[in-house]
Write a structure and sequence with these properties.
By secondary structure, this protein is of the alpha/beta class. It has a single domain, classed as Rossmann fold. Helix content is 41%, strand content 14%. The strands form two sheets. Strands 1-4-5 form a three-stranded parallel sheet, with helices on both faces. The protein has a two-stranded antiparallel sheet with strand order 2-3. Belongs to the tubulin family. Pfam families: Tubulin. One of its GO terms (cellular component) is microtubule. Keywords: GTP-binding, Hydrolase, Microtubule, Nucleotide-binding.
Length: 131
């Protein structure tokens, strides 16, 4: 089986990612809390959702995704939005301040503070994949 990990970076990436995950849930019949109704569960034929979602022991489907932004406002919208219970809190990573539209500031100073955390979270998601 093929498994995909989505990485959403920056304001635009996070906003587009949030919209995409909402559509994935609607397409596959997964509720905003990550639960799939029993009439659509495994054995019903189509398990293509497993490409993008991993299933917990409790039957909840969690996206294989990481959301990253140096400034917390946009990721906080995901944390407080309609699909807030879909994502694991470790997958929503923010810094304390933005780079003020300055590439060097984001790359060399502020971004360096969270890059190890981001790589670690991506590694954890990759380790959970079977393919």
């Amino acid at each position: 089986m093929r498994e995909c990990i989505s990485i959403h970076v920056g304001q635009a990436g996070v906003q587009i990612g949030n919209a995409c995950w909402e559509l994935y849930c609607l397409e596959h019949g997964i509720h905003p809390n990550g639960v799939m109704p029993s009439d659509k569960s495994v054995g019903g034929g189509d398990d293509s959702f497993n490409t993008f979602f991993s299933e917990t022991g409790g039957g909840k489907h969690v996206p294989r995704a990481v959301f990253v932004d140096l400034e917390p406002t946009v990721v906080d919208e995901v944390r407080q939005g309609a699909y807030r219970r879909l994502f694991h809190p470790e997958q929503l990573i923010t810094g304390k301040e933005d780079a003020a539209n300055n590439y060097a500031r984001g790359h060399y100073t502020i971004g360096k503070e969270i890059v190890d955390l981001v790589v670690d979270r991506i590694r954890k998601l990759a380790d959970q994949c079977t393919g």
